[in-house]
Amino acid sequence: MAQVLTSAPGGLTVSERVEERLRSGELTQAQVDDFRDFLAEVDRDLLNHRIIKANAYTRWLQKGEATDQELKHFVKQFSVFSNQFLVAQLLKVINAPSLDQMRAGKEILMNELGVVYRKSGQSVAAGNGSKSDEQKDIEGDPELVNIEGTVDGSLYRHRAAHYEWLLGVGEPLGLGYKDLGKRWHGRPTTLRLCDELQRIYGSEDPMIAEGASFAVENWAAAGFWQEIEDGLLKIKKARIPNLRLAFFTWHNRVEGQHASHVMEELEETYFAPDFDREKFFKGGREMLDGVAVFWDGLEQDRLNRVYT
Fewer CB within a 10 Å sphere, N or C end of the chain? Predict the structure, then answer.
């Protein structure tokens, strides 16, 4: 797997891909030094954003103490964000500045809609009937999920659509299809994130969109999925044994692949003649601020006992 630049101790590092381009003469030492300075600014200004470093709501959720009413509110608001994200991802595909970036956007969009990732050489009908239903929910049903590969040449399945997994989370809570996913179910702070994703992540300006894409994927890879999974597993074991968690467990495992795609895009974009550093940071900062509005809204709803 390609190296993923993360905010681990020591900050961001130049990937082997860039080092090889330096050795081959494709890049100069000055260009690589400038890129290293750029990564330091990314680490400082984006990856240390408070919503990446300290998400109060998901840290509370991780404790597994949410009541049924609090859990229903979370699932309903998250379903709105998840379903409306499809619009933003489609805009990202439509506005992609290159064919390769359009295809990368389609990988995410089509997988969200129900096309299973398939590794090279893997049969489209590959499965593993030895897994129990419980294992499939926690680890993923091999006929419906995979965390690596491509949608190219794979199969579409209704039940592989991420939103259908989320419907499965709502079912034991008494939430049905009509209770989830639509804009009218969203709190103002939830809708703010949905609108910001469309405006920034799906922007027609490739530099704004690139900054937003980098921010979204590194936020997603920073650990909040694990915090949610931890909390929901505790609730499942304690009182809701039929709570289905595939939506959250799968996303917790797949985000590294998405982040690696974004880093490869970032390297290509940075060394292109039309790279605009100011716009990149504008897109990244504004996108993370939009993400923070969503989580801050959930935290305030929790503290104020606001439920939908």
Answer: N
